[in-house]
Write a structure and sequence with these properties.
Helices cover 69% and strands 5% of the residues. With 340 residues, the protein is mainly α. The radius of gyration is 23 Å and the shape is globular.
C-alpha cells in the first residue's frame, strides 16, 4: 500500500498592523482622553463663516509644528537632523514684521521671508553636504545664532504691525477652516507630490539607507542632502510667517522656541527612524496632531503647562526604546523561545 506523505503544518500567519494604524489609534486615544477631561470637547459651532471648537483649535495650533515636521521628515530620512527650524521661524517672522512696517507690499514681504528660510536651509546644507560637518553640530550653529540674526533684524524689539491681508494668513479662515490649517494641508499635498510622484523621494530614502550605495548608483548625494535642508528651511519660514501673522508681531526671543523638538518628536511618532531611510509625510503630520492633542488635554485638565515637556520626554523615550535594535532583538528572541 502506498504510504501517505507527511502533512506539513501550514505556515503561521503573523499579525501586522496596517500602515499608519498605530498612529491613528494613538490619535484617537488622545482625543478620547481629551473628551473625558472636557465634556464638551467635540462641540463644534459655525460662527461668522468659520468653525470653532476644541478639535478645530487642535488643528489650528498644530499647523506650525506640522509644517516643521514635513521638512524635518525629509532631513531625518537622509540620516540628518535640523535643530535650527525654530530659529529660522524667528528669522522669517522678523523679516515679515520688519518689511511690513517698512511699507513693502505683501508679495514682496512673503518672498523675502520665504527667501530667508531658503538661505538658512542652504547654509545648513552646505555645512552638512559640502563641509561634512555633523548635522547635529551644523544646525546647532544656526539654532544659536539664528535668534541673534532675528534680533538684529528687529533691533532687539518686539515689532508689531497692522496689516489685515497679512493677519489673514495667521488668524483668518478659508473654506470654514482656519487659514493655517489650509496652508499646512496644501504644503503637505505639494511635498507629497514632489516626493512620491517624482524620483526625489526614492533618492532621499536611498541616501538615508546607504549613502555610499546611493552614490555608486549615480545619485548626486550632495545635492539631495542640500535640497532636504533647503526644503526644511522653507517649511520653517512658512511656519514663521503664520505665527507672526497670527500675533501681528515678531518676537525674536520666543518665536518658534523649542518647536524643533516637537517637530522631531512628530516625525518619530510618525514612525520615522532617526537613522534615516523610509519616510511618510502624512504620518509625521498625524504625529504633530498627537502632540497638540496631548498639549490641549493637559491644559484642559488643569495641570501646569510645564508638564507638557515631561510628557513629551516620556513619549520620546518610549518610542526610541521601541525602535532600538536591542529592543527588537529581545522581542524576537522571546518570540523564538515561546515557539520552541
Amino acid at each position: 500500500m502506498p504510504q501517505s506523505l507527511p502533512q506539513s503544518n501550514p505556515p503561521e500567519r503573523r499579525f501586522h498592523w496596517p500602515k499608519g494604524m498605530p498612529q491613528l489609534v494613538a490619535l484617537l486615544l488622545v482625543l478620547l482622553v481629551d473628551s473625558l477631561v472636557a465634556p464638551h470637547f467635540y462641540q463644534v459651532i459655525l460662527q461668522d463663516g468659520r468653525l470653532f471648537g476644541s478639535p478645530i483649535d487642535i488643528l489650528n495650533r498644530a499647523a506650525p509644528v506640522a509644517l516643521l515636521a514635513i521638512g524635518m521628515t525629509l532631513v531625518i530620512a537622509t540620516g540628518g537632523i535640523d535643530l535650527s527650524v525654530g530659529a529660522v521661524m524667528a528669522i522669517a517672522g522678523a523679516t515679515t514684521a520688519a518689511m511690513t512696517v517698512a511699507g513693502h507690499s505683501l508679495p514682496v514681504v512673503l518672498l523675502a521671508a520665504l527667501g530667508s528660510g531658503i538661505l538658512a536651509g542652504l547654509w545648513n546644507g552646505v555645512l552638512v553636504a559640502i563641509l561634512k560637518i555633523q548635522p547635529f553640530v551644523a544646525t546647532l550653529i544656526l539654532m544659536v545664532a539664528g535668534r541673534g540674526v532675528a534680533q538684529l533684524i528687529t533691533s532687539g524689539q518686539i515689532v508689531t504691525f497692522n496689516s489685515p491681508e497679512l493677519s489673514w494668513l495667521g488668524s483668518g479662515s478659508l473654506l470654514l477652516f482656519p487659514t493655517p490649517v489650509i496652508i499646512a494641508l496644501l504644503t503637505l499635498v505639494v511635498f507629497w507630490l514632489l516626493t512620491r510622484k517624482t524620483a526625489l523621494g526614492m533618492f532621499i530614502e536611498a541616501v538615508g539607507i546607504n549613502i555610499r550605495a546611493a552614490k555608486n548608483a549615480g545619485v548626486n548625494t550632495r545635492i539631495i542632502v542640500m535640497l532636504t535642508y533647503v526644503l526644511s528651511g522653507l517649511c520653517a519660514a512658512i511656519a514663521g510667517i503664520i505665527v507672526t501673522a497670527d500675533i501681528r508681531g515678531a518676537d525674536a526671543n520666543n518665536a518658534g522656541l523649542w518647536l524643533e523638538l516637537d517637530a522631531i518628536l512628530a516625525v518619530v511618532i510618525g514612525g520615522g527612524s532617526l537613522m534615516g531611510g523610509r519616510f511618510n509625510l502624512l504620518l509625521s503630520v498625524i504625529g504633530a496632531l498627537i502632540i497638540q492633542g496631548m498639549n490641549t488635554g493637559i491644559l484642559l485638565s488643569g495641570f501646569q503647562p510645564e508638564l507638557n515637556q515631561v510628557v513629551k520626554a516620556v513619549v520620546v523615550l518610549c518610542v526610541l526604546v521601541v525602535q532600538s535594535q536591542r529592543f527588537i532583538s529581545l522581542i524576537k528572541g522571546v518570540r523564538g523561545h515561546d515557539k520552541t
